[in-house]
Amino acid sequence: MELIFRDDAYQKSCDATVTSADEGGIRLDRTVFYPTGGGQPGDSGVLRLEDGGEIRIVEARKGADHEDVVHVPEAGAALPAPGTKVSAEIDWEQRYGRMRIHSCMHVLCAIIEGDVTGGQVGDGKGRLDFNLPDTQLDKEAITAELNRIIAEDHPLQSRWITEEELAANPQLVRTMSVKPPMGAGVIRLMEIAEVDLQPCGGTHVRRTGEIGRVRVTKIENKGRQNRRVNIAFAD
Predict the structure, then answer these.
(1) What local confidence, expressed as pLDDT, does residue 167 receive?
(2) Mean pLDDT in the chain?
(3) Among candidates 201, 231, 228, which has minimal Cα distance to 38?
(4) Strands across the sheet containing 214-222
(5) Where is average pLDDT lowest: 25-29, 53-57, 85-89, 170-174?
(6) Are the beta carbons of 33 and 12 closer than 8 angstroms?
(7) What is the pLDDT of residues 211-227, one digit of tens each?
(8) What is the Cα–Cα distance from 136 to 129, expressed in whole angstroms?
(9) pLDDT per position as a tens digit, 165-194
(10) Is 182 exposed, middle or buried (0-12, 13-18, 19+ CB in 10 A)?
(11) What is the 3-state secondary structure (H, E, C) of 105-127?
């Protein structure tokens, strides 16, 4: 399956062919739909048929492996036959908001020194948990630093390294709970120039300036070690 979102997160739709469809969902030969994973929710959207019909997609999920995407239709939808031509279109407003939050979370990783124990990309908001026992975090100071880096408009780009290179540079992996998928021979890195570099398979904006102003809404203690930092768009 060709994963278009991995190379171009800004492509909103693509022409595709149904390869299979069953009670688990619909598979295509190529897709712009990002599947749930790594703390980022899967895309929703629509598959448009040549006869003018539509199949609403409520979520995209990972299939048998990280190269497989299953498009989950709304309940009761008629499934297309293999070979059916469709136009796959994501809910762009939803996706773009998640891209902005996800990129902001990478900036947050660069500001707070501590291993990440969990996280979640939401709609208009997000959170990261850090392994920071006996550490007090300043909500206003973090908000100011986030907005300073965002306003500097750093470019973001992905690149690939081998699994051997990652093994030789374990400091690149910031997350304790989610490890990069292994077995394909290569690992995708997301780089914010002069700010952050870490493995990530998610979707991101092209420059930090696209994130817009944000604020830290709450800092919570989650157990003896975890500190949860909640962020949201300021507008």
Answers:
(1) 86
(2) 94
(3) 201
(4) 116-121, 125-131, 226-233, 214-222
(5) 170-174
(6) no
(7) 999 999 999 998 878 99
(8) 13
(9) 988 988 888 776 666 666 678 999 999 999
(10) exposed
(11) HHHHHHHCCCCEEEEEECCCEEE
Sequence-separated (6 or more) residues with CB below 8 Å from residue 167: none
* Alpha-carbon gap, residue 175 to 193, rounded angstroms: 20
| Location of structure tokens 């448009």 | 48
What is residue 207's three-state secondary structure?
strand
Q: Domains (ranges, CATH) in the chain?
A: 12-90 (2.40.30.130), 95-233 (3.30.980.10)
Report yes or no: 121 and 86 within 8 Å, Cβ to Cβ: no
Strands 45-49 and 156-162: unpaired
Angle between helices 92-111 and 139-151 (to 10 degrees): 110
Q: CA-based angle 207:208:212, to the nearest 5?
A: 120
> Long-range contact list for 42-45, CB < 8 A, 24+ apart?
43/5, 43/90, 43/91, 43/94, 43/95, 44/90, 44/91, 44/94, 45/88, 45/89, 45/90, 45/91
Beta-carbon count within 10 A of 94 CB: 14
